Amino acid sequence: MPNRTTRLSSAPWRRALATAGLVLAAGLLAACSSSAKKPQPTPLSPVAALMGTQLAWSAQVGESRASLVPVVAAGKAFVAGNAGTVAAIDVATGKDVWRLNLGTQIAAGVGSDGQTASVITGNNQLVAMADGKEIWRVRLLARSFTAPLVAGGRVFVLSADRTVTAFDGSNGARLWSQTRPAEPLVLSQTGALLALGDTLVAGLSGRVIGLNPLNGAVRWEAAIATSRGTNEVERLVDIVGPVSRIGNSICARAYSAAVGCVDGSRGGTVWTRAAQGVTGVHGDDGLVFGSESDGRFQAWQRATGEPAWSIDRLKYRGLSAPLALGRVVAVGDSAGLVHLISREDGSEMTRLTTDGSPILAAPVLAGDALLVQTRNGGVYAWRPQ
Question: How far is it, in rounded angstroms, from Cα 274 to Cα 283?
């Protein structure tokens, strides 16, 4: 299975810094708290502009949702919109390599190894594409809110019922499935599914589990959090994406319960720490970054889990999951702003604007560019100056 570790320490960005079932999740919890007045976003100070960036290109794929996560592979950014558009965009130029309308709503995606791209439709069909053409589609047995993983000639799917299924990448034949028992409520939010060498890693309930990609056999598992509540909502501790992988270190968040790191070579839990956030984490070899439910942005020491720093100036701004990018961390908000902050202490470096609609998924690194997708379907890529 190919190694899909993302190189986070981008030299151009370092130079720029030097110069400058019964589905729950957000819907049910929001409904439970709708009667309470929401806190107002913390007012922003004037832009610091301590580093230079330039908008390299932009594109449009139509209205999007949090489970439509851009993925970059083989020099292309694969993006999708709710209404059925899937596009492969050249990250150097911003021009379409190909674009396809599937004619049906898309619920989750995109996964790609650079050749085959895959999404999951709103009516539970897994669709595979190559060179701008659909090559097969199969019906799934359960809903999914996580982008498929395309690796090693296979397409892997993590369903909301906590089942991992493998399909043949060439024809869609079902190869195996692995189900883990868990609580009856499921999370309508992107989960964790990634490759670690020749191991498939998935977040199932509050555990990170290593699977044999050839047959689904469990190789190891490590707990980030365990169910301890007195009701079904409190016992929901699913792993949410994205996760941070550096070598064999995998750090993840269990929904509204904890953040922790595990050793992917043997499956041991290295540390866990109580945390109330609901979006994924990202990091580098020294720190792990993420936000709490109220928008307090936090850094933890990767080796020990000890807090490194936290900032309150982005509270109640509806933050996305972050992206660690060299010596800065990028995080989007519900006003369509991208905040670039120092990894050292959380101080502001600069702020980028989009179309004003929320940035729901984590930013991604696209070659030497920082890429985000907004709820209105805008795809924006900036390069350092």
Answer: 18
